[in-house]
Design goal:
257 residues, alpha/beta, Rossmann fold, 2 domains, six-stranded parallel beta sheet, 8 helices, 33% helix, metal ion binding, carbohydrate metabolism, magnesium, Haloacid dehalogenase, hydrolase
Length: 257
């Protein structure tokens, strides 16, 4: 039996936008959600930008998303740490999206005996900062990373991302990080809590089988795979799990809202 859809979670890159350009149907999809009064969140593993930054970037591409409807791996990480240790301290490698989220969660950002080392994405990873992180973890700080993505896109090609730098720190410390972002269903569950939604009546829309779809499945959501991003339909057979539905793009879901 097809479950009623009351709430929506959607990935951003590859679903709504591609390299800063809105994908067909993206603006109509978000507009339909808002007009119908559906609870929804736009999810991203990118921890560089604040929700305000992302709202502005989406607006420039013609997609009107409220700041409060954007949920990043940085916000999910800040929520996770607050649940684990309210008012704790962290040494952070990352940019404004991550430092702002932790600061607003009541965390002290410090290199002096922090409770956690938190690794996020940044455009310029500093060898000095990585060395500091290694020594703090060796000294007892717990190792958290916003997401496991090993590369990120740029106009010149792939850049090393959080997962790649985390692997280097793990090799040096022999301490495995805890990744909060997708495919960890923790990020999906925190998003559900954010909009007071239930997994039984929420869907996850994404363009990647190995992050969006598997995270949605493990969190108990119905999943839609769109073929407008990184996954081709022929790729699906390589995975031991399946989305509930495969559609060409977000345009095909506008009338489903």
């Amino acid at each position: 039996m097809t479950r009623e859809i009351r709430s929506w979670l959607s990935d951003m890159d590859g679903v709504l936008v591609h390299e800063g350009t809105a994908l067909p149907g993206a603006a109509d999809f978000v507009r339909a959600l808002r007009d119908a009064g559906r609870p929804f969140l736009i999810l991203t593993n990118n921890s560089i930008f604040t929700p305000r930054d992302l709202r502005a970037r989406l607006s420039m591409s013609g997609i009107d998303v409220p700041e409060g409807a954007i949920w990043t791996s940085a916000l999910a990480t800040a929520q996770f740490l607050t649940d684990q240790m309210p008012g704790g301290s962290a040494y952070v490698i990352g940019e404004a999206g991550l430092t702002t989220a932790l600061y607003e969660a009541g965390y002290t950002l410090t290199a002096a005996e922090p409770d956690f080392v938190v690794l996020g994405e940044t455009r310029t990873y500093s060898f000095e900062a990585i060395t500091q992180a290694i020594r703090l973890i060796q000294g007892g700080a717990r190792f958290i990373a916003t997401n496991p993505d090993v590369t990120g896109p740029s106009a010149e090609g792939d850049l090393p991302a959080t997962g790649a730098v985390a692997a280097m720190i793990q090799a040096a410390t022999r301490r495995q990080p805890y990744f909060v972002g997708k495919p960890n269903p923790m990020m999906i569950r925190s998003a559900l809590n954010r909009i007071d939604a239930h997994s039984e009546t929420t869907v996850m829309v994404g363009d990647r089988m190995d992050t969006d779809v598997v995270a949605g499945i493990e969190a108990g959501l119905r999943t839609f795979l769109v073929l407008s991003g990184s996954t081709k339909e022929s790729d699906v057979a390589r995975f031991p799990f399946r989305p509930n539905e495969i559609v060409d793009s977000i345009q095909d879901l506008v009338d489903r809202v």
